[in-house]
TrEMBL record:
GO molecular function ontology, one term from the record: translation elongation factor activity
Protein name, UniProt field: Translation elongation factor EFTu-like domain-containing protein
Keywords: GTP-binding, Nucleotide-binding
Highest taxon, organism lineage: Eukaryota
Stored Gene3D superfamilies: Translation factors
PANTHER family, alphabetized: ELONGATION FACTOR TU-RELATED, GTP-BINDING PROTEIN 2
The keyword Nucleotide-binding is annotated on this UniProt entry: yes
InterPro entries per record: EF-Tu_GTPase, Transl_B-barrel_sf, Transl_elong_EF1A/Init_IF2_C
The organism of origin for this protein: Oppiella nova
Length: 204
């Protein structure tokens, strides 16, 4: 990545991907992950989600750490740990924070287009003992998201097998997720595995 590319990312809206969560006594919820874009400073008011209903809750960054050392700000491309407080007495964070969430700008409206239960992806099957057909359940990995999804439909085909590719419609089994179009994905279930990328998300 060039210096110019990184500066462009820093000037973009905040998107922090939550990879790990902790509950620290007398501190509260703490999340660690990678800042994909933007700049986060101590005291910033942001929002985190999606919750089970697809909504986001307000949070305030009470402190920041990089490599276990306190810092005042984090820039795009850096890994960090954020201690969070509720903002304006919104949803109880302790019971709702989970891996796979994102922290974004308070006024960011992209969430309405990127939070989805259904998404379409172009996949390539690396191996499957028989065939993948509608109804097949698999664990899908997209960025920091890891969740079981079910194949709803395979475009133009009834089933696909090893070394075949197709456009496939997936549905997350549990809660909706925040997904960016174009992201690479990996799926696997037992010995079955494949790769691909997200073509389209269908807003929740």
């Amino acid at each position: 990545m060039t210096v110019k590319d990184r500066e462009r990312l820093i000037q973009s809206d905040v998107e922090f991907q939550v990879d790990e969560t902790f509950q620290v006594p007398e501190v509260g919820p703490v999340v660690s992950g990678l800042l994909m874009s933007g700049l986060i400073k101590e005291g910033d008011c942001l929002k985190m989600g999606p919750l089970d209903d697809g909504s986001f809750t307000g949070v305030q960054v009470s402190s920041l750490q990089r490599h276990k050392v306190a810092c005042r700000s984090v820039r795009a491309g850096e890994s960090a740990t954020l201690a969070l407080n509720r903002y304006n007495n919104q949803t109880d964070l302790e019971r709702n924070v989970r891996k796979g969430m994102v922290v974004i700008e308070m006024n960011d409206q992209k969430q309405s287009h990127q939070v989805c239960q259904y998404f379409q992806a172009r996949i390539h099957v690396l191996f499957h003992a028989t065939m993948i057909c509608p109804g097949f359940q698999t664990t899908v990995y997209i960025g920091n998201v890891r969740q079981t999804a079910i194949v709803i439909a395979i475009m133009g085909k009834k089933c696909i097998s090893t070394n075949e590719s197709a456009s496939v419609m997936f549905r997350f089994i549990k809660q909706p997720e925040y997904i960016n179009t174009g992201c690479r994905l990996l799926f696997r279930e037992g010995s079955a595995k494949g790769i691909g990328h997200v073509l389209q998300v269908f807003p929740f």
